[in-house]
Amino acid sequence: MIRSSLNSLGAKVVVAASSDENHPPESIIDGDTKTFWMTTGMFPQEFIIRFADPTNITAVTLDSYNVKHLKVEKNISQKASQFEFVTEKELEQTEGHLQSNAIPLNGSSATHLRFIITSGYDHFVSVHRVSIQN
Amino acid sequence: MVKLRARCLLVGDAAVGKSALSHMFHSDGALFQKNYSMTTGVELLLKCVNIPETNDSVELYIIDSAGKDTLVEACEKMWGELSLLCLVFDLTSEQSFANCSHWMERVRAYCQGCHIPGVLVGNKTDLCARREVQASVAQEWAQSQGLEYHETSAKDKENCDAPLLSLAQAFHSLYRERLETTQNLGPG
Ligand SMILES: Nc1nc2c(ncn2[C@@H]2O[C@H](COP(=O)(O)OP(=O)(O)OP(=O)(O)O)[C@@H](O)[C@H]2O)c(=O)[nH]1
Ligand SMILES: [Mg+2]
């Protein structure tokens, strides 16, 4: 399946809890699983994706490594604040390859999606790609 | 350039010098308190450490936890999620060294299998006449537990930075290793 990257659709990562210059949060939405955002120690860690317009989202797919517990929140405001809870998920640990998890969002409309990583299987976890199905 | 964050737990028997060491480290050697004032909960100290030969740094959240046995359980609830361990004993107290294995068991049970880099610190080298624990013995035990061994004197400001600096470096190395692993992962 060919799916365009989120940034080509005008999406942006507007907040990330921490980051390494060489592995910036933009790597999450460039559509490439070779590039990644790496957390820099301690939890929770979070990032927020902003869409150019309110977007209906059926599901998001998260490619990551060592993420254990994830919460997803959203809003339909222009500001990255006042989020409402959408879903949470415990991810399975993988070794030597990425975790790839589809997370159903039930067609909710959002301008911001907030991903909160509340725990990991290691001190550092990475997020390689977020893609959306709508 | 990256700024890492790590939560470092200081444990060990009461009065071995955990608070003295953490204050010494935190204040860059300005502060030594001669009178013992028992820690009754956990004290949080924040210190940023630059990693030599890089532009990177590690922000250490130092958790100085009470050593008195009746307080430990309550303190454990406040430890939070740990990244690093600094286990301290008093070189003039054989008992405080013997108890290190209990501290290790407690921390291991708490961390549930997650690996955290650690150091063992023998404190109070200034009281050499009263020394009860030989360096070689402590060193050997530390090695068997995967800990790096250091000796310090908070009173004489001897070597006080070394344990936490080496922990910051260990955390930084771990980060580098994980980056390397992550770069070589296959698709999901
Ligand atoms: N001679 C000497 N005394 C020290 C040294 N470090 C600490 N002390 C003294 O030992 C006593 C206990 O030190 P603390 O740092 O309060 O001990 P602690 O491990 O924090 O004890 P708890 O808070 O009860 O767990 C104090 O009187 C300190 O002044 C040292 O290197 N040499
Ligand atoms: Mg104390």
UniProtKB/TrEMBL annotation, chain A:
GO terms for molecular function: metal ion binding. Its main location: other. One of its GO terms (cellular component) is centrosome. It is found in: Cell projection, Cilium. It holds the Pfam family F5_F8_type_C. Keywords: Calcium, Cell projection, Cilium, Metal-binding. GO terms for biological process: intraciliary transport. Residues 16-125 form the F5/8 type C domain. It comes from the Eukaryota. Belongs to the IFT25 family. Component of the IFT complex B required for sonic hedgehog/SHH signaling. May mediate transport of SHH components: required for the export of SMO and PTCH1 receptors out of the cilium and the accumulation of GLI2 at the ciliary tip in response to activation of the SHH pathway, suggesting it is involved in the dynamic transport of SHH signaling molecules within the cilium. Not required for ciliary assembly. Its role in intraflagellar transport is mainly seen in tissues rich in ciliated cells such as kidney and testis. Essential for male fertility, spermiogenesis and sperm flagella formation. Component of the IFT complex B, at least composed of IFT20, IFT22, IFT25, IFT27, IFT46, IFT52, TRAF3IP1/IFT54, IFT57, IFT74, IFT80, IFT81, and IFT88. Interacts with IFT27. Interacts with IFT88. This is Intraflagellar transport protein 25 homolog.
From TrEMBL, chain B:
The keyword Calcium does not apply. It comes from Xyrichtys novacula (Pearly razorfish). One of its GO terms (cellular component) is motile cilium. Gene3D superfamilies: P-loop containing nucleotide triphosphate hydrolases. This is Intraflagellar transport protein 27 homolog isoform X2. InterPro entries: P-loop_NTPase (IPR027417), Rab (IPR050227), Small_GTP-bd (IPR005225), Small_GTPase (IPR001806). It comes from the Eukaryota. GO terms for molecular function: GTP binding; GTPase activity. It is found in: Cell projection, Cilium, Flagellum. Belongs to the small GTPase superfamily. Rab family. Keywords: Cell projection, Cilium, Flagellum, GTP-binding, Nucleotide-binding.
